[in-house]
Write a structure and sequence with these properties.
Length: 450
């Protein structure tokens, strides 16, 4: 079904030199199905996907032969993988080559690129993941928690707020809101929402976002600019705007992006007739301009209270080999890598984090009542495990009544295929399912195997 706008067809035709390739491009959108791809969590068991086709440009990217019901896969809910368009996985691989120390993912929800970067950066790196829309920020938090790395600060702030951290970040990822042309094949509703006017509105918004955050980038630091669209106004011309108006050099990515990626000078296009993925554009720039210097606007904040020594020993027994700094926020205990803990008060002077590190839970009389994010923590050290079948895991995730004999006595972490899903507490012949009610899956269960 070819219901693409004529103005879109005419505009994208200028991207290609031959009529054959123009027709192949349009046909890839209108006549082919998008591939299903996921990115594996390198810190969780994922041998289930060993036979899956690998994504050429992403170490842990995989294609699935068919699209499963992710809702009915406990491995999804346990953070063993993240469903992500293959083309956009290139961003994380660019970050791998840059090895940054302080990173800002500016427009981060729902969290594909954030979780990818969280698995790549070093333990000493600081990573702030921001989403301006509150309900999308909530989804971002859930995905960060499931990924279990514990090295992310999630914020819900306007880009302008970060300009107060003058020259702070050595890498900013700006996957800006765009007209979504690269999603036409996957989402036909996006075709109905597209217009030349919407393209220009996106250009104006992107310029505003980049101008607002530019001072937070260290001179010599890097900006990864990306969109899921094709047109030159949001792509090549925006790269030129960043270079000429904000002050940056364009950095080629030959050898990092696949040879099938298309470049017309500034940036790289992933076209669905050339690469196995959806439409995507990415460019790397290095800042050449100086900072304006607004760090004097940062508020002085009272540091988060450190955990008491007796409580630290309880928490440290669960934290595995990683040396965490434990703080009390409200009535809950959190564990932070030192890189996050040492910088937290500075970040709080600019914007209040909505989540950070790993939430461990509450302590009563020396005993921990664990929070759900602790179950997802990749370094969790907890010996009592209740391993469930596929069907029983789904009943657990629905908070259905279950046979107590499936669970260990006392507190246990519930696992499926050795991937943690949450907590349960069996007291004699009764089980208390501690899986959060707001995460409960509501789709009907129908399974054929365990």
């Amino acid at each position: 079904m070819n219901n693409l706008p004529i103005s879109f067809i005419e505009e994208t035709a200028s991207l290609f030199d031959s009529q054959i390739e123009r027709e192949a491009f349009i046909s890839s959108i209108t006549d082919t199905q998008p591939p299903t791809s996921i990115r594996l969590n390198p810190c969780k068991p994922t041998d289930y996907f060993d036979d899956s086709e690998k994504v050429e440009w992403c170490t842990h990217g995989r294609y699935l032969s068919e699209r499963p019901s992710f809702t009915l896969d406990p491995l999804f809910w346990g953070g063993a993988y993240y469903p992500q368009e293959a083309s956009s996985m290139i961003v994380g691989e660019i970050v791998r080559h840059l090895a940054p120390r302080k990173v800002l993912d500016l427009c981060a929800a729902p969290g594909g690129k954030t979780t990818h970067i969280a698995s790549i950066i070093s333990e000493d790196s600081l990573f702030v993941s921001n989403e301006i829309i509150p309900n999308r920020a909530k989804v971002l938090v859930e995905n960060v928690q499931r990924w279990g790395t514990g090295n992310v600060i999630v914020t819900n702030a306007k880009p302008k707020c970060f300009s107060n951290l003058s020259g702070y970040f050595d890498l900013i990822l700006a996957d800006v809101p765009c007209s979504g042309e690269g999603m036409f094949r996957k989402d036909h509703n996006s075709i109905l929402e597209w217009s030349p006017q919407s393209v220009q509105a996106c250009v104006s918004r992107s310029k505003s976002i980049l101008c607002d955050v530019w001072d937070a980038l260290l001179p010599g630091g890097y900006l990864i600019y990306s969109t899921c669209t094709y047109n030159r106004y949001e792509d090549e011309e925006m790269v030129n705007y960043i270079m000429t108006e904000l002050g940056a050099d364009y950095i080629p990515l030959d050898g990092i992006v696949p040879e099938s990626a298309f470049t017309s000078g500034y940036g790289y296009h992933f076209f669905p007739h050339r690469t196995k993925g959806e439409g995507f554009f990415v460019a790397l720039l290095q800042k050449t301009s100086e900072c304006m210097g607004h760090t004097d606007k940062i508020k002085v904040v009272v540091p988060f209270k450190k955990a008491a020594k007796n409580d630290v020993s309880t928490l440290r027994a669960l934290s595995g080999p990683r040396n965490l700094d434990f703080r009390v926020i409200g009535d809950r205990y959190y564990g932070f890598p030192e890189s996050i803990s040492n910088e937290m008060d500075l970040i709080r002077g600019v914007v209040s984090p909505v989540y950070a590190g790993i939430q461990f839970g509450k302590i009563y009389a020396g005993k921990l009542k664990p929070s759900q994010p602790l179950a997802f923590y990749n370094e969790l050290s907890f010996d009592s495990v209740s391993s469930l079948s596929l069907e029983d895991s789904l009943h657990y995730l629905k908070r259905d009544t279950q046979n107590p004999d499936l669970f260990r006595q006392g507190l246990s972490v519930v696992k499926y295929r050795n991937v943690s899903l949450g907590w349960a507490n069996r007291i004699l012949g009764r089980v208390n399912n501690l899986y959060p009610s707001d995460l409960v899956i509501r789709q009907s269960i129908c399974v054929n195997s365990t």
